[in-house]
Amino acid sequence: MDNAHLLATLRERLGTGIIAVGEHRGDLSLTLAPGAYYAAAQYLRDDPDLAYHFLENLCGVDYLGREPRFEVVAHLVSLRHGHRVCLKVGAPEASPRVPSLTPLFPTANYQERETYDLLGIAFDGHPSLTRILMPEDWVGHPQRKDHPLGEEEVAFTFNQDSIYARKPFAKS
Amino acid sequence: MSQTTPALHVPTPQEITGPALAGKADTMVLNMGPHHPSTHGVLRLVLELDGEIVVNVAPDVGFLHTGIEKTMESKTYQQAVVLTDRMDYLAPLSNNLCYALAVEKLMGVEVPERAQVIRVLLVELQRISSHLVWLGTHALDLAAMTVFLYAFREREQILDIFELVSGARMMTSYIRVGGLAYDLPADFLPTVDAFLKLMPARVDEYEDLLTANPLWLERTVGVGAIDAEAAVAYGLSGANLRATGVPYDVRKVFPYSGYETYDFEVPVGKTGDIYDRYRVRVAEMRQSIRIARQAWERLSAMGPGPYITADRKVAPPPKAEITHSMESLIHHFKLWTEGFKPPRGDAYVSIESPRGVLGCYVVSDGGPKPWRVHFRSPSFINLQGLPHMARGRLVADLVALVASLDPVLGEVDR
Asked: Which of A77, A101, A147, A152 to mutate to test the interface with B (most CBs of B within 10 A)?
């Protein structure tokens, strides 16, 4: 399996679903239309000649000031061919939503929950899209570029009540 | 594969506590952790029990979330290396290496041959030391205390080597973008030689204690088995995946740092149970000794040489040069005040860390600080296999299972 062969196969299958193709030091990355993202992953997984069964990485990036502002990046590995391909899909700032890959790859479960938690990108079709790293009652998505770093007061037992009362999640 | 995937679900804690709180479940819900000593860190498990049988279990993570990825965005590329130590604190050098490789790939930096050999030697020692912690604590969880004492004795020797090299036992920050932080000390090679001569007999010693021990076999054989298909679907990696018979080792499939030139085997298991994971990791220690020995021989034959790239846009010039070269002074000043600026773009690199596939995705906007750094941490993803393995087993087996997955919570939560 090489990049050119895989790209030709995917072009034939997805047609205009591929928005952009990048190749950086031998790594192939495809920017896909939101409608083609799930289909591309499914095709890569299920086609017996491709067999990209291993979803190695899934994460989100916040390109603040660009539209679509968010991008979800997935790296798929074919253990049979020893080849890796990167799929990217954009999500608009107004309502960042991307199809979930969890029905195809159960391993995407935690990674999509993490992306939702930290960047606020929703994944349609995810079985249980809840926060995973931040507290359940947290307000906001800290990995976003417009979320300030720091400015969190450290709460100790003796002052936690007064600090929590000032927080966005304060319960009256 | 497509028929089985819908059943492979990783429950959230709320999915177990919800029905119980509503009074709809006949089963008992038990909270385990986040401070239970056998959970290897601040991992909380919500168990649904029928008597002593685990009906369902949901890992609850995030207690150690320190926002490392976010913090990295406000550090220069070279400063961010320090933060990588704090993720998988049992394998800081592997984290250093993964991050450095990703930034090097982004910039197209060539690392000198000698630095690559030192990197390989150190990360293989790191793999042994990390597996020793796993072995010691795993055996301790199953009430075999002697192994713990033996394993930590050898681990201390490896940490002494790291201290010799970097000045720190655990938070090494020794592997930097472009090469290494500084050159090896003079007594490095004899110290490593002594350790590599001693270690094979010590691995035999651990195996004498456990491999045929009836108590150990009782607790591990056939417990927590997972098949290859489910393991791949859950994205398990490292020894957890290889114990099921899938020979995915990044060092062989996507070689980095010259691993393709070393002679070693990838140990695999058959059934994917706890015992197979144990066998695979012990065999990996032996392979790591083999790789480290090859690297040691190359290093001895090589003699002194460069330890970091000669590219002055990435690595600072030597002090001697600064005193008489204006250009070197400028490079030095630029590197320490601003840092280097990789071109716009992104790069993804994965390495075989002691716990599995450790990936690093770096995005650059052309500035001196990374726009986004993401780590695909193997412990985080391996935890997803836990409910699948634990269902229908006893609570005591769950303790053995968590230890056999070898999670490091600093890496899970980052």
From this structure: A77
The answer to whether position B7 is within a domain reads no
Least Cα distance to B179 among B295, B294, B100 occurs for: B100
Task: Report, as an integer, the average pLDDT of A81-106.
Answer: 91
A54 CA to chain B: closest CA distance, Å?
A: 6
pLDDT (0 to 100) of residue B39: 61
Residue B207 contacts A, CB cutoff 8 Å:
no
Q: Look at residue B3 and tell me if it is in a domain.
A: no
Cα B305 from Cα B183, distance rounded (Å): 9
Q: How far apart are CA B344 and CA B363, in angstroms?
A: 8
CATH number, domain of B245, equals: 1.10.645.10
Q: Is B253 on the interface with A (CB under 8 A)?
A: yes
pLDDT at B81 (0 to 100): 92
Q: Same domain for B278 and B377?
A: yes
* pLDDT tens column, B119-151: 999 999 999 999 999 999 999 888 888 899 999
Structure tokens at B336: 């320490």
The answer to whether residues B377 and B245 belong to one domain is: yes
pLDDT (average), residues B269-276: 90
**Which residues numbered 337-366 in B keep a CB inside 8 Å of some CB on A?**
345-348, 350, 357, 359, 361, 363
Q: pLDDT tens, A5-18?
A: 888 888 888 888 88
Contact check, Cβ <8 Å, B105/A25: yes
CB under 8 Å to B70, separation ≥6 — which residues? A118, A142, A143, A149
pLDDT surpassing 60 at residue B4? no
Which residue on chain A is closest to B370 by alpha carbon? A61
User: Chain A to chain B, count of Cβ pairs less than 8 Å apart?
Assistant: 119
pLDDT of B244 reads: 92
Counted residue by residue, chain A has a size of 172
3-state secondary structure of B61: coil
Q: For chain B, what is the domain count?
A: 2
CB atoms within 10 A of CB A104: 22
Which residues of chain B make contact with A77, given a CB cutoff of 8 A? 248, 253
B15 at A interface, C-beta within 8 A: yes
Reported confidence tier of residue B32, pLDDT bands at 50, 70, 90? confident
> For every residue of B315-336, which 3-state class applies, written as one string?
CCCCHHHHCCCHHHHHHHHHHH
Yes or no, beta carbons of B108 and A127 under 8 Å apart: no
Of B233, B374, B413, nearest to A107 by CB-CB distance is: B233
| Count of domains forming chain A | 1
Q: What CATH number should be reported for the domain holding residue A7?
A: 3.30.460.80
Residues of chain A contacting B371 with CB distance shorter than 8 Å: 61, 63
Contact list in A for residue B345 (CB cut-off 8 A) is 24
- Residue A122 covered by a domain: yes
What is the per-residue burial (b if ≥16 Cβ within 10 Å, else e) of B135-160? bbbbbbbbebeebbebbbebbebbbe
pTM for this prediction = 0.90
